[in-house]
From TrEMBL:
Residue ranges annotated for the Filamentation induced by cAMP protein Fic-like C-terminal domain, each copy included: 441-499
Protein name according to UniProt: AAA family ATPase
Gene3D superfamilies referenced in this protein's UniProt entry, alphabetically: 3.30.565.60, Schlafen, AAA domain
Domain Schlafen AlbA-2 intervals: 19-139
Length: 505
């Protein structure tokens, strides 16, 4: 970073009065902060790394207060960097800003194979952190495990489950699968059936693998209840919204069975709950029905959620979740993107497979191509249907696919850590949609939120009487669109929560 860039960044922080996913501010007027380990770990463990700025005081509205001694500060920060495992190599920049000296320390991301970076004095379990919004949170056992599993090439779909004997696998389905493999490779038929099952990762040492159970067991959820799908239809825009009769869900179902059975039942659930538009061709008079979401896109999203979800012991209590809302369909899969894959690379780069054995089985049993075509198919199907681009989000401990149904205006933005993914802004579109503020009102509110504002301040500015109405009509839609951003995204219900216009300052 050049000194001029540091001054520009400091000015932006002052105007915005907020830290960010990649940015942390420390005063350092009276000495070096004694505990930087959490932030050093959090920045090192995210792909973008991060920047520490010394010399701005958060408690004084981010006013420039300067640092006590540039040389000593650099020395002591470096000492803390050397207490990390692996050691952190910070890059320092000095600049004069508003009459005082300030300093930045750029913290590079460490390679995925070396994560998690943690403070040696606390150990890996207590000393590893992850950056969430502008906070550094302790890594969960699962997050630490996911790095270990990737580094050691552990595939949880191949772990054995001794409670299930081979006799509990559905023989007709298993025989059909083996016959398909024999047809593909004629010499494969020379093997004995137990040998075939071993080579195809259905069993290990005569004991069924998790992949074998999820594809062939008569009732996999008898031993893994949450390796299932929960599907709900919400009569509103968020979980918790209720209908006219105070119903929380218009449809609610737990979907069980093998991978292929769950896919078919989940697609059926979605089809049953979709709105269907009837279109009459004015020239021919022919009738054509158009579903709210293209079924092929839904099917691919459900397949991806089941095949690529995390199946480790850490996620045994978490099902795949399908949520229908008035404006969108969300499909949540436990476990974030595996390995080096990023959201930007989806459908472009060849990913590492979290569950290779399960994926190969699903190719035969569900028609999944296993050719990295699922994401492109979802995008193409949505485009062909004239619907907004799908949104893919790599959240903490889960991956989410969101399909919008066309009752929104939508525009894509960068998905870098410093930018919140824009999704949609409601438009007036028939009796089921709520009336939203006019464009002038939205722009006025965004200008007002050039500085972070509380719920009360926003309600007063918009001239509404209740905080609930202000949140529902103004703030929540703008949050969904990415036009407003939380100062405390990891604590959405915090009393200290404020909102500011994205990109302002």
């Amino acid at each position: 970073m050049l000194p001029e860039e540091l001054r520009e960044l400091a000015a932006k922080v002052r105007a915005q009065r907020a830290e960010a996913q990649f940015l942390e501010v420390k005063a350092a007027k009276d000495g070096c902060p004694k505990r930087l380990y959490d932030t050093l770990s959090g920045f090192s463990n995210q792909d973008s790394g991060g920047i520490l700025i010394f010399g701005l005081d958060e408690r004084a509205a981010f006013r420039a207060v300067g640092v006590y001694d540039l040389h000593d500060l650099q020395k002591k920060v470096t000492e803390q960097c050397n207490q990390m495992e692996p050691p952190v190599r910070a890059v320092f920049t000095f600049a004069e800003y508003e009459g005082v000296n300030i300093c930045s320390a750029e913290i590079p991301a460490i390679d995925l194979a070396e994560r998690p970076c943690y403070y040696k004095g606390a150990g890996k379990v207590k000393g590893a952190y992850i950056r969430v919004g502008d906070a550094d949170l302790p890594m969960t056992d699962y997050e630490i495990y996911s790095y270990e599993a990737y580094r050691k090439h552990v595939h949880d779909d191949e772990r054995t489950v001794e409670r299930i004997p081979v006799s509990m696998l559905e023989q007709t389905r298993l025989e059909r699968f083996l016959n398909d493999k024999k047809a593909e490779r004629p010499q494969f038929s020379l093997l004995q059936e137990p040998q075939m099952l071993e080579m195809l990762n259905v069993t290990r040492g005569g004991i069924p693998t998790l992949a074998g159970i999820m594809n062939f067991c008569i009732y996999p959820q008898g031993i893994f209840p949450q390796y299932s799908i929960t599907a709900v239809v919400v009569p509103g825009y968020e979980i918790g919204d209720v209908g006219e009769d105070l119903e929380r869900f218009m449809d609610n179902r737990r979907i069980c069975g093998t991978i292929s059975e769950m896919v078919e039942e989940a697609v059926g659930f979605c089809k049953r709950n979709m709105k269907v538009k009837t279109i009459i061709d004015p020239d021919t008079g022919r009738r054509r029905d158009k579903a709210e979401y293209p079924l092929n896109a839904v099917r691919e999203a459900v397949l991806n959620a089941l095949i690529h979800r995390d199946y480790s012991e850490h996620t045994e209590g978490t099902p795949v979740q399908i949520d229908f809302f008035k404006d969108r369909l969300e499909i949540h899969s436990p476990g974030n993107l595996y390995g080096r894959m990023t959201v930007e690379q989806l459908g472009v780069a060849r990913p590492d497979l979290r569950n290779p054995a399960l994926a190969v089985m699903a190719e035969s049993l569900t028609g999944a191509e296993n050719r990295y075509s699922g994401i492109p198919t979802i995008r193409k199907e949505m485009a062909d249907a004239g619907l907004p681009d799908p949104v893919f989000e790599n959240r903490r401990n889960e991956f989410v696919v969101t399909l919008y149904n066309g009752t929104v205006s939508y525009r894509s933005v960068s998905s870098k850590p410093s930018v919140v993914m824009e999704s949609a802004l409601y438009a007036v579109n028939g009796p089921d949609t709520e009336e939203m503020p006019g464009e002038k009102s939205v722009q006025d509110l965004l200008k007002f939120c050039a500085q972070p504002r509380s719920k009360t301040e926003i309600a007063e500015f918009m001239g509404v009487k209740t905080l609930y109405y202000a949140m529902k009509k103004y703030v929540n839609p703008l949050l969904r669109s990415g036009k407003l951003v939380m100062t405390l995204p990891e604590k959405p219900q915090s009393k200290l929560q404020k909102y500011y216009a994205a990109g302002r300052g």
